[in-house]
Design a protein that fits this description.
The protein folds into two domains: about 160 residues, 3-Layer(aba) Sandwich (Rossmann fold), CATH 3.40.50; about 150 residues, Rossmann fold (3-Layer(aba) Sandwich), CATH 3.40.50. Helix content is about 35%, strand content about 20%. It is built from twelve helices and 13 strands. Strand 11, helix 11 and strand 12 form a beta-alpha-beta unit. Helix 3 packs parallel to helix 7, helix 8 packs across helix 9 and helix 8 crosses helix 12. The longest helix is centred in the last third of the chain and has 17 residues.
Amino acid sequence: MLLWHHKYVHIRRRAVHWLAARTPEDIRSVAVIKHAALGDLVLARPFLREVRKHFPNASITLGAIANYVHGIPEDLVDRVHVAAGQFRPRPSWRTRTRSYRELGYHDLLFDITASSASAWIAHLNPAGVKFGYRHSPLAPLVYDVALPRGFMTFEAESFLHMLALLRLRYDWPLDFGWPAHRAADDPPYLLYFPTASIPAKCWPAERFGEVLGRLAEALPHHEHRLLYGVGDWEVAAGDACLAAAGERPNVRAVRDAKGDAFRELIRGATLLVCNDTGVRNLAIGLGTPTLGVFAVGLVDTYLPRFGHHDAVHDPAGGLPTVEAVHRAALRLLARIQDDG
């Protein structure tokens, strides 16, 4: 295997020699460290699928962390290593170190997390070659190959840049390993999710409700389903959204959707309208069209350049208007219909 050399990529000479003496078929074990909540674990799926494709004889270990175990893609890996998390009371350094070392040796180690915990795990475990991001001055001391993180590129694709350094081509559009999206026929429905991981990432619920009401009026033959979150503040936001939408026969609330029913609800939607949230990443992975409403944060990092996806934000730094979100939803629906 050969590495691409670039002036912004740190590469140790020993990594070049180690890889040059091996083919992808020689690799017997690969570790991928990804500490993240549900949405970001979804975005790791294309990377794991490409690892399986390019290293057919390797056993794949996913390095997770105890804080985030919901949504671990166990269907794509052979083993899951769960490191001690950051719960309160925080585990002792000795306890964390012991759990970190349990990852063990791997021919290739890819750290696609770029956190202090993931860097410690990469440092404490031996590997043929360690890949990571050049996100701190200490990265060249931990990783054999360290590259800049493409923060203006859709995050799921930025992970794959590590494989591109090995001159390995990845599939496009990205393959998440789930059945192709198929919108429900009877009745077709739009799905709305007005909350996110924290309130600061949420567009105001009243504006969400106004968009829901306007789209319900513009699309009377569609059902418009408001998906509630589970926290108390999320329930309150859902109630406010529903009240702002007004009484309409084609609007209904969906509460307590869990597990497979939750995933199938998302898969069957004609369009999901939501904030920058893990639910949107799940929809992207399922192939469901999405319209993201970004109250804060960079859009490009979370906007795929494939499929039927769009995002609305205010370039001036304020909140998107109801009219802008309404227009974007109708444009995206027209594009979906034109593309069949």
